[in-house]
Amino acid sequence: MLEVTTDWYLTLAAILFSIGFIGMMIRKNALFMFMCIELMLNAVNLTFISASKHFGQVDGQVFVFFVLVVAAAAVVVFFPNFSTFFNCYLPFSKQKII
Length: 98
Fold this sequence. Notes:
The chain is mostly helical.
């Protein structure tokens, strides 16, 4: 039977973070960019959880809780502003802001 070690979790987290980073750099749609940021945050959360399991501490799980709270607060704050801005300036892209 194949045992799943911490290395597997860290490799998966690196792959997820890379996909999120590449998606963030390539795509110009703001909603897709927010989804890529969330994917990168989840990769960091997976890293925290795997380190917590590896070292036998609960610190990583506490950090994950705070990261999820901050991500949820960002969605609550930025999504209404984004939708208002999106309705004013169609179509929305990074190049119009910069």
